[in-house]
Records
---
Amino acid sequence: MGVALTEKSRLEHLRKGTPSIATICSHSSLQIFHGGRSEGFNTIGVAQGTPPRFYQAFPLARPNEFLTVDRWENIGGLVDKLNERRAVIIPTGSFVEYVGPERFNALPVPVFGNRRVMEWESDREKERVWLEKAGVPMPRKYREPAEVDGPVIVKYYGAKGGKGFILAKDREDLLSSPIRQPHVIQEYIIGTRYYLHFFYSPLSKEGYRVADGTLELLGIDRRDEANIDELYKLGSQEGLNRSGIQPTFVVTGNVPVVIRESLLQQIFDIAGNIVETSIELFGGMVGPFCVEGIMTEELKFKVFEISTRIVAGTNLFINGSPYSDMVAPSLSTGRRIALELKRAAAEDRLEEVLS
Ligand code: ATP
């Protein structure tokens, strides 16, 4: 059966049976499959070439079925198979990384969440407009080196995992650094990093109310970043530069953290404003998102980035986190997504959580 579906008929088609959950075999896929399976969904792993063997080691998180492509750019060839199985794609960072935002956005298969969020999140300028409109405290942005009056971080557009970012402790240091284009010069915030895992449900009315839905905090992590996290042991920046060692922020893992309880309201206010502004700007975010920032010693949280989908730091909490355990037992973000999809299907409100 070939299923060539228009945007409207895709939802109608989904309504005729139980949806499946599909995602790329990478990033947070174990958690997504585990969460989907525990809520009774059929799960589909999409892989390039032979699926990784490690799934055999995790019987409760192995997808029920693999679909494979020879190269990611040919993912369009799976559309019929995905639609036959009433698949809903759960977006992760791997779709942007491997499939690319344009190809992913054009895939005629239902996606969990609002696809329009990608254009606002993947462009640093647009993201800043969104966060500023939401009144979110952010690191200062300098238009040119002459304005710099403290430590800065220079970020390149499209840099993967913060590779090649430059840290400068003052203007002089910055002027002597070899900076490429295009870039953004940002105030370097000194404090403690927190990556806050939120979930916005447009369906739920019970809990912490934001707009027409509710906001949940499901966990917090901190990323282990190579090589910056260990560089301090080698001494000052100038010395490192002389030795040809440049700082990088390539994420290699994650550690669980909790934040001081008295800071919770501050971070809920920030996340709530981000959700409300997303509704005004582009019809709203749905489901998981991560607010990434630094808590200063004055206890002010400054946001440097937002990820508008499940982040890999949630993999710490397959069996729940110190926060999600107070929402529901054993609630991972993967399972929370499955629950939202299940509820939307049962209440015939799929169009509110899919795009
Ligand atoms: P990714 O896509 O992996 O999230 P990215 O290229 O979007 O990375 P950022 O997330 O903006 O880059 O930054 C990467 C890392 O740099 C952060 O995890 C954090 O450690 C550090 N960082 C970013 N902005 C600041 C800042 N203003 N002050 C201090 N550290 C920062």
---
Amino acid sequence: MLYRDQIERAAALIKQSTGFYSLTGAGLSTESGIPDFRTPGEGIWEKFDPIETSSVEVLKNNPRVFYESAFNRFASITMAEPNPGHYALARMEEMGLLKGLVTQNIDGLHVKAGSHKIWEVHGHLRSGYCQGCKKRYPFEELVQQVELKRIPPVCRNCFDVLRPDVVLFGDPMPPIFYEAEDTLRNNCDLMLAAGSSLVVYPVAYLPRLAKKLIIVNLRPTEYDHAAEVVIREKCSKVLDDLAEMLATG
Ligand code: NAD
């Protein structure tokens, strides 16, 4: 199918749908300057194993390693800005078409772009909390302590180690994941999966809850065979063209 026909087909499916949701992954934010995990030659996984630096085990047993590696990567992500793909999804929600979006990304770019109904199922970088007394802190507090070389940063109340509000390897999924799963199971007749390799479980199980799928990804995914439309182009272009077609077509 030609690119234009793919966009028209995707737009027609969205217009017919009564329960249209999106699932987004790290590939949506590569065009905002944040590397994904698995793009060959550029993905984070090729540079280091995130499990060795971003796991609950490391945070517990060697918090300095966590703060000197994974945390610096997290902190640099907070500078990123949304790209046309994030804005296009916010526009689809504004048009009343997109009922909600589930994201694996911790970068907060959907919030910055103006989306409202979002499940950030791997957490975000707006806040953190004390592992001991659970007192909450803005993410900036963690950054400031690290900049002042207080590594690891600690709680002002009980002096236990602080951690960001992200789901680390070895953490259980947060309650909002199950809320998103329930909503999709009961309402989703169409899912647009954008910029995800769809291999990180349990999130990679969510496309099974949709009756129909549209996939936007530069490389093949496990779900391509089950999708109505597969578009192998950059997310920002595809989502922007799609929003434009939905607004005018
Ligand atoms: P992934 O790295 O496994 O897959 C990303 C996919 O996006 C790849 O298949 C790649 O080919 C594709 N891609 C890259 N750039 C693209 C573009 N411009 N347009 C279209 N496709 C593009 O990412 P994942 O499936 O989200 O899983 C990675 C895990 O790592 C997630 O759990 C996520 O929480 C975390 N992560 C998050 C960020 C972030 O917050 N931005 C960044 C890296 C990793």
